[in-house]
Structure prediction request, 226 residues.
Amino acid sequence: EVQLGESGGGLVQPGGSLRLSCAASGFTFGIYWMTWVRQAPGKGLEWVANINQEGSQKYYVDSVKGRFTISRDNAKNSVFLQLNNVRPEDRAVYYCARDRYDNSHYFDYWGQGTLVTVSS
Amino acid sequence: SYELTQPPSVSVSPGQTATITCSGDRLGDKYASWYQQRPGQSPVLVIYQDTKRPSGIPERFSGSNSGNTATLTISGTQALDEADYYCQAWGSSTVVFGGGTKLIVL
Prediction:
């Protein structure tokens, strides 16, 4: 059974940093792209970043470029999202998802999400 | 930047057909996917590559994509289909979601 479990969310001050983790199990992690998607309270889904199998290709939504970094550790079946210089508008539930790249990107399994709250 | 537009809400009576649209410039040239999100839950993929259903998704869910509009159709809508639905597409190394449509079954 495919399982994704996010952790690392919590309260962070504006300008602060946080590292989100996503542990994967139930599939061969190293052959899949992975993605982070966020959802602000009461709002829609927003794609944040994705990473290819080897970690050599990384893409970001414009609003987080230069502040967030996606990475992965295939030996530990984990993908990470480093949040730096966090802004109030980054407050959201952050989901990791398995990213199926087959002439397009779509997300077939999602974690339960981890909440990031930004407040001083 | 690329945008996908969905109606904020769609209402349907139980047993009837619900149609949710997603509009974007030349969207038919891209693949569209659809996600269902019930309150308090994570999104679930219901349609990918315009028309394909993942394993476990009921046959009453179908999709199409042509021109500037992708469509999610739910036939024989049930009360448990009440949820938010999001379209999604990919292009120019960027993933985009529509704003979401609340399906109301009444």
Notes: Chain B touches chain A through 26 residues (CB under 8 Å). The beta strands of chain B are 9-12, 18-23, 32-37, 44-47, 61-66, 69-74, 83-91, 94-97, 101-105. The radius of gyration of chain B is 13 Å.
